[in-house]
Amino acid sequence: LRPGPSGIALSLAWACATGIFLTYVVMHNVDHDRPLSAFLPTMLAEVRSYIRQACKEATLFYFNGFVWTYDPRLRGDKTVPLITYAVQDNAIEKIEASIIYGRDLTIEKSRDQGASVICTGVFEKRWHFWPNESFLCISRDENEVDKAGYPGCLFWKIDFIHKHLPPWLMPRWYTKEFRRRFVFENPETGSTINGEATVGAAGVGDRKTAILVDEFSRIDFADEIELGTADTSPCRIFNFTAYGEGNAADRMRRDSTRRKIKMKWSGDPRKNKKLYQWSADEQRFKYYRFDETI
Q: What mean pLDDT comes out for the span 9-34?
């Protein structure tokens, strides 16, 4: 069992799926006249139905059970399962809560914390399983939103999730015609994800369940986008690494009235190993934990 909410969610959900399988094994042992293969179609249908419902209701289960990510810096296989850690678990839950309850959210992050993957992943999960929701992804230029063969863009990350899902977990009736540039359309749920580049009028005049503004600190029209999207959606997620002073992102991160998530490198178990700080009060070195800085 991996510690944290994602470990518990993943373990419990798989335990329940295993329980369905064992139920059919017991039925087979009781009914010796019927081979186990006779139960397989019904068993698979029930397990898959349960897993789909678990993915819909438990976002951490969906992420840790089925979402894969890509990192070309890795030795060996560059495609790996997305196993979230505590800071990411917290971010996923707060992003989805912001969507459900219609609240703006600011994400201030260090580099390489997977924030863009998490944001697009939560949008994809809502698009995937919940009906009639509409999302908008905005970044600093159109290629950062959607460009074929460019792993850094937002929509490539969603395509990558779909590429590695089992076919039975994909939306029913989903074909290439429902994936166009700047568009994901779900024929089963009726939900959509659209993309736009950052111009002053980005997101203005539309109506969305939630909006992601990625790399907000590096956007030229940041003030116009913040003002123009205020009535477009009750949930706007501003995701950025601090860059410069006095700009819209800097004012946003200093605003104590805003709901915020801080995803600092010190909360990343890949980067905080053997990190210590000197405690003047205790006159000793203490392990530098992520929960002391976030």
A: 59
- Please state the rounded mean pLDDT for residues 91-96: 96
Q: List the one residue out of 233, 204, 124, 215 whose CA is nearest residue 169.
A: 124
pTM listed for this prediction: 0.82
